[in-house]
Description:
Layout: E1 20-21, H1 32-44, H2 55-74, E2 81-85, H3 88-98, E3 106-110, H4 119-126, E4 132-136, H5 145-151, E5 156-162, H6 174-183, E6 187-191, H7 203-206, E7 210-214, E8 225-229, E9 249-253, E10 256-259, H8 273-289, H9 291-310, E11 315-317, E12 328-333, H10 338-349, E13 351-352, E14 354-356, H11 361-367, E15 373-377, H12 384-400
Parallel strand pairs: 1-13, 3-4, 3-5, 5-6, 6-7
Antiparallel strand pairs: 2-8, 7-8, 9-10, 11-12, 12-15, 14-15
Helix pairs in contact: 1-8, 2-8, 5-6, 9-12, 10-12
Catalytic activity: (sulfur carrier)-H + L-cysteine = (sulfur carrier)-SH + L-alanine
InterPro entries: Aminotrans_V_dom (IPR000192), Aminotrans_V_PyrdxlP_BS (IPR020578), Cys_dSase_SufS (IPR010970), PyrdxlP-dep_Trfase (IPR015424), PyrdxlP-dep_Trfase_major (IPR015421), PyrdxlP-dep_Trfase_small (IPR015422)
Domain Aminotransferase class V: 20-390
Amino acid sequence: MPSLDPESIRNDFPILAKLVYLDNAATSLSPRQVVEAQVTAEYHYRANVGRGIHRLSRMATHQYQDARETVRQFLGGGQGTLVFTKNTTEATNIVAQGLNWKKTDRITTVLQDHHSNLLPWYRLKNEGRVAGIDTVPLNDGVIESSDIEACITPETRLVAVGHASNVFGTIAPVKAIADVCRDHDVALLIDGAQTAPHLHIDLEEIGCDFFCFSGHKMLGPMGTGGLWISDAVSEENIPRPLFAGGGMVDCVEGTAFTPVTGPGRYEAGTPNVIGAVGLAAAVRYLSRLGMENVGRHSAALARRMLSGLSEIPGVRVYTPADAPLIGTVSFTVDGVHPHEVAYFLDEAAGIMVRSGEHCCQPLMHALGLNGGTVRASAYCYNTEDDIDMLIATTEEIAGMVR
């Protein structure tokens, strides 16, 4: 398969004519094809799903279920269940609040992970629903399967791990972690918010139980995402849907009710039909590019950032140089607050980056960084020129304070 040529697709992203966008770890841009798919849905079959017999409802229901199948196949989900959610956070909370926990259960997490894969588990501990949280400590941004295994105890019920760090950009060996979890009869939840946009994902090959992701980081609309549940996890394992109400119920008798089977039991209320259509268009777009190509391109740009930024006096790079990476690199400039760096990059060169703690306060505390870091994150439409502009402008900022 030919390598990815970002110049050939940049016309699909009109906003790139005005700026250098390097905040993709937070939110990616959407191509024309995704926007047009949503507009078509609005104009031609705006209706609720599974609620009516008229043609618009039938069309909307068909498109919604087709979108579900498109995304499930994109993730290599086989016969597992794909639940549409607003984002990774909601997906994680469906599992956290839905499992039947015992008060003796323990959960293993990773200190460097995003709050969305920490706080739902902390909440269970704080409410006394589980016995405790065992946290993999900071190891220069790199997670090994042995780190996970060292934290597993006989009481461990679930391991929750980020597939890639949204601060360091490092990729965790989730297949090896899944093997460890299987050996210890422990469930595995993967936060794939950072990897679904960049890597070829084959959930059946990985062997996890739950996979959470966000559409807005993978060219899709905001307010879209999903939770994939392995066939090995029965509905009895998650008997308590996060929300109850319209659409998720099969039968109501008195005050008792029975949820429907399948993904609908976790999708109470009117779903984001237009968003699901847009998300399906996004994964079709990525499939045409080839996820192996996307991953290689993002990693190459990250390596270019690492090399260039590391050579600038007064710049400290926190992303390890010898680890598998997505497109993300974090750094600081001595004597300049990360927010000031981000502001100057925008004002001086139209470069959009993220600054601050990146929803990773435990990690920032461990690093001793009160102001967080500057995070630059590249994607399929970014070029080497974008990276070189970032490096040159950062060098200018560092030179101003020397």
